[in-house]
Backbone:
């Protein structure tokens, strides 16, 4: 939720053209209501920060929407800024972060929302904070990461120029019922976009790649196209392993992450589209820490990247960010410089120094992200001390069955001890027990601070603690670490 | 934790139906629960994954698992299972233990009519039929069961739009304490016929209801081996998880969708 400083060079840049009809000119009463809504939202935001309560991320939007339900549409719809919306199950935050870095390298002023404020209220908060009380936005790029279920409501209000869909994994079944209902709603949204918009799709995802077949907007595809990484078959928790047209089992030349890969249907011939932004070469660091070297083939030639982040998922994030950047008319030749100093987003294998001990803090929310982080951690030297934390909230969800789809068995020989915390501590402990972690290594401590202290006591001086936690526990644990001076507040990053 | 009392003489033969097709809500946890609770007692397990187009003789198994899937997967399973149906019915009549969950449960009935789309044919092994609804039950659930040795409680999470109505040959698995169960009207949840058990409980169901896991294991073994005594296990963690889930079910009683009723902060 920050607007970067104006850079003088920026004035020479061509301003993006509005692609949609300007909002109808509002009446005096409408204008007064809008001003009131924005002021109230800003006040809520300021007092939230002052008092350091909550993330200060959802409340301003919630208040502003209550005063003027059209506030988001009035502010964002009327703005001439380029509007990029990023959605999907995994990778939204880092893709947004990378896109912002490329925009920044182009000296555009970016306003963007933060993780966890990706529901409608959070998105509105960004607009309210970035706008003047008259509803004018002073920025060049509006970057929103939005929960995939919120998209159908948010897109008509935002009227984006670029929509990125990172992937659709088994996630939030307790919110949306079935995977396919989310997909159906997303596809309908894409078909509503005007022909001036660009849709950026993950071509390696058999379901996402088929989105927008009847859309007026232009479609571009990103993904991986290399045999240097991946496995012969998708992992157990993969969702779309059958052809979306004829239900026949898909054949994989290579599977990269979950059901993402180079697939084709031997029955009806469905296969991935030609990738406009393809990682044709990937070299991962063997220590699970990075950097990652990759070559991205783009319509403007190959771009060589060195990303200081580990894992295949970050190659996807980079390819998606470059695709989104080109769709938004940023100069993508600046991508390497822009991404070469990118730091992990809040709680994405974030390395934290806690006195003489090191903490890796990782936000995980579905089997795909859990497996991915677990496998990266497994590449780190030595046996592991773990802290696992899950709680049920609106953001985190109610149903934690997905823990049983995570392949925790793979890391079991590496586990020295594990503290389970949050109000899902019992489920976590039970999952570990049935993965045959000996019960004397497992402890349940509901209180987050007590759990963190106990977990750190398990760690020898100079040693490392690995935290895998859901959204709210990640935020809360980080808050504790911030109080202790181990990390900055994420507003100050 | 392992007990050698049974000397590894006992073998539990399990058929896991459609493990990659009908697997949406992490119900493989049910299989883990059965396998580990057998292993910790020195009972061997043999698990055969049964895929589309395979038609084994199901009477050779002691326990058959059939889990949930979304409507699209269900359509594939409905078509395929017709070839498996005669042998499945034979096994059920012979007393093989079945655990079926959600879509798997629905497909053991006569039919499933989704809210949109054509009716799917079931196995007809449980006397019941299911109709889709526009409203989806997505919340914590608890039910009270009595299989002849006193009242016991099952807990978990339900996530279904189907409304199931039992015929005279099927009995409900339990009485709903909180949540909605079969149809949200008659207070019944799940179905039982001989040793065939069906339920809407995900979670997955068995890990946090260890008494039910042991009940299924015992029933399945006794059919082959006669009277079997299962060594008690230390269920401290399982009981804690069971109680936590029961507390949630009580707290969310009356909610159609738990996520809409939940707290922003915890």
Residues:
């Amino acid at each position: 939720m920050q607007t970067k400083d104006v850079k003088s060079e920026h004035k020479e840049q061509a301003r993006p053209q509005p692609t949609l009809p300007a909002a109808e000119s509002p009446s005096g009463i409408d204008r007064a209501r809008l001003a009131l809504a924005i002021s109230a939202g800003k006040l809520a935001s300021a007092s939230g920060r002052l008092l350091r309560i909550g993330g200060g991320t959802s409340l301003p939007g919630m208040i502003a929407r209550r005063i003027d339900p059209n506030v988001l549409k009035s502010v964002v719809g009327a703005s001439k800024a380029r509007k990029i919306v990023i959605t999907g199950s995994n990778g939204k935050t880092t893709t947004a972060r990378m896109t912002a870095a490329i925009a920044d390298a182009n000296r555009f002023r970016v306003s963007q929302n933060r993780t966890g404020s990706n529901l409608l209220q959070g998105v509105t908060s960004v607009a309210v904070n970035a706008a003047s009380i008259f509803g004018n936005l002073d920025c060049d790029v509006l970057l929103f990461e939005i929960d995939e279920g919120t998209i159908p409501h948010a897109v008509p209000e935002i009227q984006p120029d670029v929509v990125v869909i990172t992937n659709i994994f088994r996630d939030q079944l307790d919110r949306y019922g079935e995977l396919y209902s989310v997909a159906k709603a997303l596809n309908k949204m894409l078909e509503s976009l005007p022909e001036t918009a660009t849709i950026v799709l993950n071509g390696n995802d058999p379901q996402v790649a088929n989105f927008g077949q009847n859309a007026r907007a232009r479609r571009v595809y990103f993904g991986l196209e290399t045999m240097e990484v991946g496995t012969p078959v998708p992992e157990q928790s993969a969702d779309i392993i059958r052809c979306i047209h004829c239900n026949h089992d898909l054949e994989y030349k290579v599977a990269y992450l979950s059901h993402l890969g180079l697939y084709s249907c031997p029955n009806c011939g469905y296969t991935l589209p030609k990738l406009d932004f393809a990682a044709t070469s990937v070299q991962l660091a063997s220590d699970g820490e990075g950097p990652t070297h990759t070559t991205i083939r783009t319509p403007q030639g190959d771009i060589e990247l060195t990303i200081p982040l580990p894992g295949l998922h970050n190659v996807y994030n980079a390819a998606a960010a470059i695709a989104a950047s080109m769709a938004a008319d940023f100069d993508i030749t600046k991508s390497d410089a822009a991404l070469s100093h990118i730091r992990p987003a809040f709680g994405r294998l974030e390395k934290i120094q806690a006195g003489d001990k090191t903490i890796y803090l990782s936000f995980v929310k579905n089997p795909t992200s859990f497996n991915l982080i677990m496998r990266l951690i497994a590449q780190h030297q030595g046996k592991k001390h773990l802290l696992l934390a899950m709680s049920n909230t609106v953001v985190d969800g109610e149903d934690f069955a997905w823990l049983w789809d995570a392949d925790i068995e793979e890391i079991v020989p590496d586990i020295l001890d594990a503290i389970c915390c949050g109000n899902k501590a019992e489920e976590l402990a039970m999952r570990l027990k049935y993965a045959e972690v000996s019960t004397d290594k497992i402890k349940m401590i509901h209180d987050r601070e007590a759990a963190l202290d106990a977990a750190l006591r398990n760690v020898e001086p100079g040693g490392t603690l690995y935290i895998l936690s859901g959204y709210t526990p990640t935020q809360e644990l980080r808050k504790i670490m911030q109080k202790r001076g181990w990390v900055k507040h994420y507003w100050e990053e | 934790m392992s007990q050698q009392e049974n000397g590894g003489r006992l073998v539990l033969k399990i058929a896991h139906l459609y493990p990659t097709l009908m697997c949406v809500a992490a119900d493989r946890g049910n299989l883990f629960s059965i396998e580990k609770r057998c292993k910790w007692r020195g009972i061997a397990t043999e698990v055969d994954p049964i895929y589309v187009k395979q038609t084994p003789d199901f009477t050779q198994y002691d326990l058959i698992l059939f889990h949930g899937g979304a409507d699209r997967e269900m359509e594939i399973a409905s078509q395929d299972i017709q070839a498996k149906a005669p042998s499945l019915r034979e096994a059920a009549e012979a007393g093989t233990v079945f655990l079926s969950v959600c879509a798997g449960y629905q497909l053991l009935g006569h039919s499933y009519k989704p809210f949109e789309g054509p009716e799917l044919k079931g196995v007809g092994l449980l006397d019941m039929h299911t109709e889709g609804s526009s409203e989806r039950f997505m919340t914590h659930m608890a039910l009270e069961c009595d299989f002849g040795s006193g009242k016991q409680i099952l807990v978990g999470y339900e996530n279904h739009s189907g409304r199931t109505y039992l015929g005279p040959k099927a009995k409900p698995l339990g009485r709903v304490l909180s949540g909605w169960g079969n149809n949200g009207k008659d207070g019944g949840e799940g179905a039982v016929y001989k040793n065939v058990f069906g339920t809407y409980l995900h979670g997955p169901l068995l890990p946090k209801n260890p008494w039910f896991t042991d009940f299924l294991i015992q029933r399945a073994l006794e059919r082959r081996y006669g009277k079997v005594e299962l060594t008690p296990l230390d269920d401290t963690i399982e009981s804690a998880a069971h109680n936590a889930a029961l507390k949630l079910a009580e707290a969310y009683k009356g909610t159609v969708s738990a996520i809409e009723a939940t707290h922003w902060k915890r």
About this structure: Chain A is about 30% helix and 20% strand. The longest helix of chain A spans residues 28-51. Residues 1-23 of chain A have pLDDT under 50 and may be disordered. Chain A has two domains: 8-339, 350-492.
